[in-house]
Amino acid sequence: MLIPYPNINPVFFSILGIPIRWYGISYIAGILFSLEFSKKIMKTNPFIMSEEKVDELYIYGFWGVLLGGRIGYILFYDLYNYTNNPIGIIKIWHGGMSSHCGFIGVTIAICYFSIKNNFKILSISDRILVSVPVGLGLGRLANFVNQELIGRIASEDALFKIIYPNYGLPARYPSELFEAFGEGLFLFIIMFSIFKFHYIRIRRGVLTGVFLFAYGLVRVICENFRQPDSQVGFLYDGITMGQILSVPLCLTGLTIIAISTIKHNQSTLKVMDKL
Fold first, then answer.
1. Cβ distance 25 to 122 under 8 Å?
2. Residue 76 in 3-state DSSP?
3. DSSP secondary structure string, 1-34?
4. C-alpha distance from residue 171 to each of 12, 55, 155, 159, 269 (Å)
5. Residue range 134-163: average pLDDT?
6. 235 DSSP β-pair partners
7. Is there a contact between 150 and 176 (Cβ–Cβ < 8 Å)?
8. What angle do CA 73, 75, 77 make, to 5 degrees?
9. Higher pLDDT residue, 42 or 270?
């Protein structure tokens, strides 16, 4: 089925000649939603922290996403270009963020905040990551509006395909929409559904592990429909950089889930021994 491209202007509006793009708005909207959502679920039993502390955490998190995502994109996706054009490093409004390395930046921010305030790192990440898929989904929709990170050329019998105005024929997979659904709506439903179960919520690290594994798996799948960055191309027989970076996320997620489950079972046995 051929999906008509909506042809939305990437620039939402301008202020004094400065373009305000959907790309930037998606980041801001995602952060604001996650902030307000986190303030609510941080109070859910067991209580984690006050709203004031959540505000402080998100200041660190914002810089973690920004610096981690930008530095990661430069190192893994376009080092040659930025080495020859270093001024382009600060032009974030032109795009160029690595979601994988954005996670690393957020992880560092959460670790710093937790150690500074004597909080359990995984207790915080469990709550924060519930709402993160919303921001990821909005970011992919902004990619779609910008006609960037486009899909590969679609097969004749493809269920969904689209013609990007900037690229013309042949029709391609709407990979940004696949990722918006997988990384956004699908992952949010999974995380929020699991969070609603108290007996899982109290197992510190399970939600963090589920997020890392599920996100990595979704990326590995969706990368099969997405055209790899032109400056990187395919690696190792059709494998993309995004897939390679997703494997450690999946393995880390499974490891955290396993350790959390073992610790919970050991605690349960200790309680049973006292009965």
1. no
2. helix
3. -EEPP----SEEEEETTEEEEHHHHHHHHHHHHH
4. 26, 44, 9, 12, 58
5. 89
6. 239
7. yes
8. 55
9. 42
Quote the mean pLDDT of the chain: 85
- Residue 217: both structure tokens together: 């798996």
Q: Is 113 exposed, middle or buried (0-12, 13-18, 19+ CB in 10 A)?
A: buried
Query: Kind of pairing, strands 2-3 and 11-15?
Result: unpaired
Rounded CA gap, 117 and 204, in Å?
A: 18
CA distances from 3 to 9, 149, 174 (A): 18, 17, 9
The domain locations on the chain are 2-273
Using an 8 Å Cβ cutoff, are 69 and 98 in contact? yes
CA–CA distances in Å: residue 246 to residues 107, 132, 243, 252: 16, 17, 5, 10
Give me the mean pLDDT over the 160-178 stretch.
Answer: 90
Global confidence as pTM: 0.84
Residue 263 DSSP SS3: helix
φ, ψ (nearest 5 deg) of residue 149: 55, 45
The pLDDT of residue 83: 77
Instruction: Give CA 267 to chain center in angstroms.
Output: 32
Pair 92, 68: CB distance under 8 Å: no
Q: How far apart are CA 98 and CA 191, in angstroms?
A: 22
Compute φ and ψ for 88, nearest 5 degrees: -70, -15
- Confidence (pLDDT) at 274: 46
Structure tokens at 47: 């209580």
Return d(Cα 133, Cα 214) in angstroms, integer. Answer: 11
Which tokens belong to 122? 């995984």
DSSP string, 176-220: HHHHIIIIIIIHHHHHHHHHT-HHHHTSTTHHHHHHHHHHHHHHH
- The answer to whether 140 is annotated as binding is yes
